[in-house]
């Protein structure tokens, strides 16, 4: 028991550490996790989770994959693909079918597998999946269209890949084994339909009960988690691998019911999903033995991986999207990005054993083939998606942007100053009259309530790393900060200091639910706009070797307000009483609100 606890502790620690290293180094998280797992497992031999966990290994991975797939499908709101339903539908249907056929042909003629095994593995390899796609999308900051297509394909096709493998296997048994009748194939089809119905029923039940207040707030996340596991286990008990379909349908059903509790549910599941992805990748890679690792470099396997990367994937995307409104550059990016992940590994491991037991000896190389494709695609796509998307103009500007909530004279002019320095900015406000300030300053704006559900589909927030709540209402600024804290984190979420004379009485709670306080902590909305009306100007000062930051501070008037430092690297640092050690270096620019001479 003590050894088991140590192994589980080590797996969790390495998984989270890998995510942290990826965040600090800006490397693809999937690639870091794969490398860390290999080092801890087959290279150094510190652990072998498959052997250490024993019978728990398979069920733990299966349930984790189900939860990850459900979390991803919670984001599949049909409103997101408005205007893109045709290419998305084509890719997840025609594209998936072409990928299956072409992948099977490559598995037979290039990898040397028998037709039976080739068609099973061809079905498995159509999957990409949220475990690999979602981390890459977060890293690359793709524009909405390309990101939506890759996300929908990854989540929707995942269960179909597993089902195709099951269907291929059942059909092969029908053709090759005399005792197997066509009833088995019919049973598979019925089990798949039943799994979809179970997912839809469970999803609707969750949404219906939440909207009618039948489940208290503190129980909503546990209820969803248990229900996901129940839907997955029940469907998988009826027929193996149909659980993935059930949880995907369940998530999509909830996502399109537009229930009020979905945001909190999504945040909770996303946190769990990140942890599970980290843990599973470590478990799978650390369980790989050295013989399998070395066999990946077999010539046939290498040629098969290259064929999948450079021929089959681009061909399926270009053929399936003929006659759609996808641009050539979008087809090029989507046709390149198709990393395989956890679902491919787990399903192929299952079928490697099943096929060998059925007498197909060539299935022995399926594990090596799958690991080779997973490592090859994860490394190739993980390290290239950022560069390629920038070259094709499908990623947002590398410079971190600023989203202002609230249009007024101060925010409009401050946004204009940042825009002139090349920082992406936008102002949102529900009032058209207040937005005249943004319009006069000639800065981008969005006439929408930032807290409305529709805002998520009206505005792409990907380019904006910082959110500044700068309205005249303290309660509203605090509410905005509290709402967006899961997405931005407190370090990227700012709000104006409280206007104590308004009697909001928020001082005792604002530290816990608000964003980081802006500027010196004393300059309120009223004071800032009075300064603008009084002729104060936004001054940009470049710090040099001869004119240091200390010299600049000595020259500042006591009425001046230090706003932000634009670093030479392009990053921004807003002044705040919670960041006492902020210092401008040579080459940085300091923006201040300065009293004119």
From TrEMBL:
Pfam families: Na_H_Exchanger
Topology term for the membrane: Multi-pass membrane protein
Compartments it resides in: Cell membrane
Chain ranges passing through the membrane: 6-23, 30-47, 59-76, 88-109, 115-137, 149-172, 184-206, 218-238, 244-262, 271-288, 294-312, 333-353, 365-388
Domain Cation/H+ exchanger transmembrane, residue spans: 19-390
Keyword Cell membrane among UniProt keywords: yes
InterPro entries: Cation/H_exchanger_TM, Na+/solute_symporter_sf
Organism: Alkalibacillus silvisoli
Name of the protein in its database record: Sodium:proton antiporter
Domain of life of the organism encoding this protein: Bacteria
Keyword field: Antiport, Cell membrane, Ion transport, Membrane, Transmembrane, Transmembrane helix, Transport
């Amino acid at each position: 028991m003590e050894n088991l606890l140590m192994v589980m502790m080590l797996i969790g620690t390495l998984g989270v550490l890998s995510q942290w290293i990826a965040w600090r180094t800006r490397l693809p998280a999937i690639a870091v996790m794969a490398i860390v797992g290999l080092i801890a497992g087959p290279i150094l031999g510190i652990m072998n989770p498959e052997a250490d966990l024993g019978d728990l290994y398979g069920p733990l991975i299966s349930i984790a994959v189900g939860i990850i797939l459900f979390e991803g499908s919670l984001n599949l709101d049909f409103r997101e693909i408005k205007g893109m339903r045709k290419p998305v539908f084509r890719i997840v249907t025609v594209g998936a079918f072409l990928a299956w056929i072409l992948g099977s042909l490559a598995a037979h003629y290039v990898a040397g597998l028998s037709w039976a095994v080739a068609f099973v593995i061809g079905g498995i390899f159509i999957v990409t999946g949220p475990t690999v796609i979602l981390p890459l999308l977060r890293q690359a900051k793709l524009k909405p269209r390309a990101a939506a297509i890759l996300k929908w394909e990854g989540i929707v096709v995942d269960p179909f890949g597993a089902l195709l493998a099951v269907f291929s296997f059942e059909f092969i048994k029908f053709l090759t084994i005399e005792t197997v009748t066509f009833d088995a194939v019919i049973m598979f089809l019925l089990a798949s339909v039943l799994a979809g119905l179970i997912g839809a029923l469970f999803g609707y039940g969750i949404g219906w009960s939440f909207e009618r207040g039948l489940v208290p707030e503190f129980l909503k996340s546990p209820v969803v988690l248990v229900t996901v596991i129940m839907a997955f286990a029940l469907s998988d008990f009826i027929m193996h691998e149909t659980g993935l379909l059930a949880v995907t349908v369940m998530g999509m059903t909830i996502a399109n019911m537009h229930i009020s509790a979905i945001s909190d549910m999504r945040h909770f599941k996303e946190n769990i999903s990140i942890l599970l992805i980290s843990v599973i990748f470590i478990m799978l890679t650390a369980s790989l033995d050295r013989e399998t690792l070395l066999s990946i470099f077999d010539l046939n396997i290498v040629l098969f991986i290259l064929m999948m990367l450079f021929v089959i994937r681009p061909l399926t995307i270009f053929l399936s999207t003929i006659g759609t409104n996808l641009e050539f550059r979008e087809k090029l990016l989507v046709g390149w990005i198709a990393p395989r992940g956890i679902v491919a590994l787990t399903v192929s491991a299952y079928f490697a054993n099943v096929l060998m037991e059925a007498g197909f000896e060539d299935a022995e190389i399926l594990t090596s083939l799958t690991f080779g494709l997973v490592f090859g695609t994860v490394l190739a796509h993980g390290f290239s998606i950022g560069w390629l998307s920038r070259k094709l103009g499908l990623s947002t500007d590398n410079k971190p942007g600023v989203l202002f909530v609230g249009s007024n004279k101060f925010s409009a002019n401050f946004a204009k100053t940042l825009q002139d320095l090349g920082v992406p900015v936008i102002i949102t406000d529900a009032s058209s009259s207040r937005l005249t300030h943004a319009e006069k300053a000639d800065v981008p704006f969005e006439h929408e309530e930032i807290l409305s559900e529709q805002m998520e589909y009206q505005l792409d927030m990907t380019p904006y790393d910082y959110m500044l709540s700068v309205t005249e209402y303290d309660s509203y600024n605090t509410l905005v900060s509290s709402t967006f804290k899961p997405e931005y984190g407190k370090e990227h979420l700012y709000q104006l200091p409280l206007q104590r004379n308004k009697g909001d009485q928020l001082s005792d709670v604002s530290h816990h639910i608000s964003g980081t306080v802006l500027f010196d902590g004393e300059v309120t909305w009223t004071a800032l706009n009075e300064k603008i009306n009084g002729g104060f100007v936004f001054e940009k000062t470049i710090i040099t070797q001869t004119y240091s930051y200390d010299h600049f501070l000595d020259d500042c008037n006591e009425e001046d307000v230090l706003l932000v430092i634009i670093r030479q690297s392009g990053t921004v640092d807003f002044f705040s009483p919670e960041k006492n050690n902020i210092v401008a270096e040579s080459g940085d620019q300091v923006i201040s609100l300065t009293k004119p001479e």
